[in-house]
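Q: I'm building a small set of examples for a reading group on sequence design. Run inverse folding on the following structure and report the sequence directly after it, with nothing in between.
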C-alpha cells in the first residue's frame, strides 16, 4: 500500500495515497466509494475533480484564504462529519489563540523580514500568501509585501539592498540544502551578520499557530537585539 507523507496524527501514516497535486487516481477513488471528497481547487488537478463530479461523487472545496478561515474550515468539516460540537470547540480555541498572538505583537516595533520561499530563482511571499500573513502577525515588515503576486520572483540585488534584519528559510530540515541561499556570503546584511536566519515549519491546520508562536518569538528575539543596539 502506498503511504501518505503526513505524520500527524499517528494514524495518518497508514492512509492510502490516491493522488497528488499533479494527478488523482480516479479509479481507485471510485472503488473506495467515499461519502464526500474534500478538495483544494488550487492544489488538486481541476480536470480530475471535474471527472469525480461527473461520477456523481460529492466534492466539497476547501479554500481558506486567511488565518481566520481555518476556524471556518473546522466548522464546515464538523458539519460534514456530524461533529459540530467538537468542531465548534476547536474553532473557538483556535480563534482565541490567534487573537492572543495578534494582541501580543500589535504594538511591537516593526522589523524588516525577508522570506526566502525558493532560491533558484529567488521567490518570496507577498499580498495574501499565508507566510505573509504570519509575518504581519508577528510584527514583521516584508519589503516585497505589495508585489503584484502572492509569490513573486525577485532579483538578488533587490533583496540585498533592503538589508533584511531577519531572513526566513522554511523548514530546518532543508537549511543545509545546497540550493538554499547561503546568507553568510553577504555579511553586511544584518540578518546574516547577527545570525537571525530562521527555519520555521508551516502547517495549514490548527497546529499552524504553534509554529507561528515560535516564529513570532524568534522575530521578537531579533527585535529586542536591534533595539538594544540602538
Amino acid at each position: 500500500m502506498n503511504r501518505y507523507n503526513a505524520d500527524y496524527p499517528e494514524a495518518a501514516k497508514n492512509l492510502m495515497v490516491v493522488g497528488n497535486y499533479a494527478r488523482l487516481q480516479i479509479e481507485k477513488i471510485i472503488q473506495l466509494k467515499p461519502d464526500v471528497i474534500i478538495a483544494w481547487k488550487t492544489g488538486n488537478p481541476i480536470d480530475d475533480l471535474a471527472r469525480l463530479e461527473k461520477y456523481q461523487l460529492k466534492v466539497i472545496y476547501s479554500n481558506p484564504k486567511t488565518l481566520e478561515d481555518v476556524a471556518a474550515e473546522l466548522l464546515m468539516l464538523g458539519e460534514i462529519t456530524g461533529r459540530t460540537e467538537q468542531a465548534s470547540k476547536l474553532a473557538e480555541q483556535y480563534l482565541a489563540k490567534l487573537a492572543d498572538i495578534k494582541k501580543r505583537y500589535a504594538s511591537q516595533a516593526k522589523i524588516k523580514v525577508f522570506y526566502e520561499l525558493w532560491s533558484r530563482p529567488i521567490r518570496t511571499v507577498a499580498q495574501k500568501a499565508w507566510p505573509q500573513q504570519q509575518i504581519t502577525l508577528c510584527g514583521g515588515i516584508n519589503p516585497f509585501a505589495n508585489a503584484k503576486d502572492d509569490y513573486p520572483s525577485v532579483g538578488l540585488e533587490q533583496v540585498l539592498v533592503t538589508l533584511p534584519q531577519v531572513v526566513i528559510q522554511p523548514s530546518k530540515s532543508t537549511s543545509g540544502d545546497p540550493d538554499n541561499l547561503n546568507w553568510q556570503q553577504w555579511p553586511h546584511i544584518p540578518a546574516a551578520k547577527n545570525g537571525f536566519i530562521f527555519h520555521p515549519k508551516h502547517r495549514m491546520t490548527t497546529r499552524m499557530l504553534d509554529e507561528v508562536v515560535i516564529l513570532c518569538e524568534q522575530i521578537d528575539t531579533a527585535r529586542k537585539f536591534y533595539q538594544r543596539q540602538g
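Residues 2 and 108 are 47 Å apart (CA to CA).
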